[in-house]
Design goal:
Blueprint lengths: L3 H6 L12 H20 L6 H10 L7 H8 L3 H13 L3 E5 L7 E5 L1 H21 L5 H22 L1
Antiparallel strand pairs: 1-2
Helix pairs in contact: 2-6, 3-4, 4-5
């Protein structure tokens, strides 16, 4: 058996620069979107964590806590903490089911409903700023490709 130093010298260094890593590039873009979104929604009294829940609830108000957690992709204990914060901020209220006392529905308040159009406009503006100077065909292609990558990765997770 060769000495450790000889073995180490024979190891081939693998090159995988960030510019060739789809995961790295997606993460980098995601962080840039998040930073800007957070800066722009803070004046409305909404945190980035609350944003994800609002985004789902604006489309599907009244989901159970468990359904909401699954749709946002958060662990249930994290969801409970976020919902407590949203309740204190006057964005949601929780209603225990009459049929099953363990089931809790999450409902938007009038305040959260009023914020919907303004905050979605903020998000749309950020998207438009990110897409500036990019051909519409390239954007359509990007959306197809990124959706396919997500589907591919989701299949592996099952």
């Amino acid at each position: 058996m060769p000495p450790p130093s000889a073995k180490a010298k024979s190891v081939r260094v693998l090159e995988f620069p960030p510019r060739l890593s789809s995961g790295y590039l997606v993460r980098d873009a995601h962080r840039a979107f998040q930073r800007l979104l957070e800066r722009r929604i803070t004046p409305y009294g909404v945190t980035r964590g609350q944003w994800y829940f609002l985004r789902v609830l604006w489309t599907h108000d009244g989901l159970s806590q468990r359904e909401l957690s699954a749709r946002v992709g958060m662990m249930e204990p994290t969801t409970v903490i976020a919902l407590r914060s949203m309740e204190r901020s006057g964005l949601i209220h929780r209603l225990r089911s009459d049929d099953d006392r363990r089931k809790v529905r999450v409902l938007l308040t009038a305040k959260a409903k009023r914020l919907r159009n303004e905050l979605l406009a903020v998000a749309r503006t950020i998207t438009e700023e990110a897409e500036a100077g990019i051909d519409m065909r390239d954007l359509a292609s990007f959306r197809r490709v990124i959706a396919r990558m997500t589907a591919n990765l989701d299949l592996i997770e099952r």
